[in-house]
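tool_call predict_complex ligand=FE2/S2 (inorganic) cluster
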Amino acid sequence: MNKPFKEKVQQVDIPALGLRNYWYPAIARWRLGSRPKAVTLLGEKIVLFRDDGKVYALADRCSHRGAPLSMGKCLYRGSGTLSCPYHGWTFDGGTGKLVAKLMEGGESPLPARAAVKSYPIHEHAGFIWLFVGDMNPVPFPTDLPECIADDSKWFSISNWRTYKCNWRLVMDNLAHDQHAPFLHRESPELLFQPIFKHATRNSTELLEDGTGIGHHATHGVHVTHYEGLGPFPPPQEAWYRKLKPSGRGKDMDSTSAANAKFGLKFRHMNMLPSIALIGRPSGNFFTCRLVTPIDEETTILYNFNLFRRRGSIIALLNSLKWVFWSSWAHDWLFSDQDKVVVERIRPGPELLSKTDVGLTAWRWFMARNARRAEPEALSSEVVPQIVEH
Ligand code: FES
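tool_result ok
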């Protein structure tokens, strides 16, 4: 699997508005109340509404004269319909069909072409998910890793952050590019640990089910001497790195519990459409980060902290640890170190290097394996060229 990644120059075609024909989280369930709610996903304006406990999603543009349906009302409770605020055209939430023109009488024609797009919906893990694309939806769990899909074995604590930049930059940040040991070296989580540089041996493999790739990184070094500069980390940062490596940067090799007990092979995986799954050597915890394109300049990063169910006491301890430590140290401070930089990246030509082996592999995999309704459906926009160091 490694050979194709070493092609001299790869120009990969990745749509600026995201990979279509996948399920994405649209909104936390609790945020949808009794009034319709406007959301945007992959550049599409969508209205969500709840009627009689059921959630519906329609294109947020009335086919009459374009008013936003999200300003409308469920006038007929229990019918699963939404009425436009302007002249009362009323649409079926399940099919998008026009079912009444409230200012024109019951005899007025209801042409089929007046239907608005309706979106397949699934509620799971505290979120409302939508299938955004141009084909019939795939079954909901198809695209999710087991630790999110199977809530009988895992539970999650989740949150989200809005990035003011294109989704590809956020996803690049979550591919395996070894920015973490450097960018986050002074975060509270890593502050006293050695800087683990594992640039010496990196490789990438296809996941067995073909949904993504897994990264290996071994033979790390903690200190390097640079001619004319001195050692890295420099003395002013080195003196306080007294802790032993935590295992955070270790591979899930045969010495890890994750491998021995659960057969897990990779600590860091990237999966379609835009998922980064990063685990711990115990195999009992993953952080799953799901990058959701909103429009070309806005992205929501959903962060699922996933704990293997091992009894109520351990669940309570895991939850307390998250509340009093991880939510602040990781989900807030650590992640914001990424956010501050990623939002300011200026896309353009890149000169990729040794740290980008995993990133290159991910872009290559994503461009070639993303689901598409038409084989030629990807945009012609080209991600900056990838050049071997
Ligand atoms: Fe919606 Fe007229 S614009 S009913």
